[in-house]
Amino acid sequence: MKHLLACSLCALLFACAGQQTATSTRSQQASRPEPAQAADSDTSGEPPSDAPPPAAPPAPIKSVLTIPEGTRARPIQLRKVIAKINRGDNVGQQKGGLLCVPHGPLTWQGGHALAGEDEFTSAFQDALRQANYPVVGSTDNLFPDPSESRAELMVGGLIDKLNLNACFTRGGFGNTSAVKGSSSLHVKWEVYDVLARKVVYEISTDGHFVTHGSTQGGLLMLMTSAFNDAVRGLLSDQGFYDLVTRDSGHPGAPPPTTFAPLHVNAPAASSDSIASARAASVTVLVGAGGHGSGFIISPDGYVITNQHVVQEAQRVRVRLADESEVIGDVLRTDSYGDVALIKLQADKLPSVHLRNSKPEVGEEVFAIGAPLLEKLDVTVTRGIVSAYRVDRGHNYIQSDVVVHPGNSGGPLTDRSGSVIGVCDWGIQLGGLDQNLNFFIPISEALSRLNLDFNPAPSQLAGHLR
Question: What is the pLDDT averaged over residues 233-256?
């Protein structure tokens, strides 16, 4: 009965330690109590005969590529570590007592989330700092860390293979912290370039760990120790090292556009007004319930929106200001500039006028879009140009005009309805908007998409002015 209770406590404490619960799937039988003593120590230098076998053959010690002092390197943040292991999967074996009596398999009960993610983040950060990599963020902060805004590279890890062989040497006394054994895991890494706004590097590494003497920390220690070894594998990769130490080019020229010039028809001359800009504004409907905003720049159906609105979609539904809906083909996306071009399967559409000159700070501006809900489409809000900013190599118009999620990709206009910018992002604190919002200048959006108007700009009678 005592042993059965100890095993129950083992499963409970494994979950409480910030790890996924491990349970025995075979019946337990009572065993004699172990003598009360400290966790056993093995000083012979040889593994005891009852030690659990390693989960996998130990890998050779990885040679970490350390960044020399004074080398310019790009700040890194670990964004997330998740486990792609199905609930109920067998992930190893558990044993108990000083003789390491087999107690059955360990099964994964945590799903894809890692309840002890801070431990993995700390292991990642410690390993990188020891190799002189510039890491931002800290697991000790109770609130958002301002240093995280400096990150130019974000790293994500996906654990898709795990093997644990654990002997709880004090398990008969309800102590699941003292453990010896082995662990191995496989991690798929992705590196996201914040400036380029896309995943730029992928690599997989294995991690292994073996301890022959009882060590405090339980299953969490076994997992994070193997994870630390996998991090060392990442740090021994020349491609990752080159990516981090490559001159970020900040400040510097943006990457050139890869698109051939595209000529679009300019709208016929018409009176400029907020009403006409509103009539040419659209709602972009993506996926199951997602939406953003956009605006028609040509009567033959070309629409500008954000890349992060359409993402990888090839076709989208677009709701016009008159509530009718048409299908649109996503022709171009530029992740660096966060702009996209859609061609609607319709023509003779209302279209906006574009203004290529910079509005003055303090000038009145208007945002049009579908904040929060689709049914709030073509909502108009008013503000002023607050400043011009450069953030991570990108130029922005800053404004206090009220926008919310759903406004992304919509137009920012002057008081005559001419478009001066594309809604991109805003700052929130505690989930609340702060009226600190940022817009891509329309001239830069056109440049990133490599769009030309027919007739030429000098003949547009105010279309691009």
Answer: 77
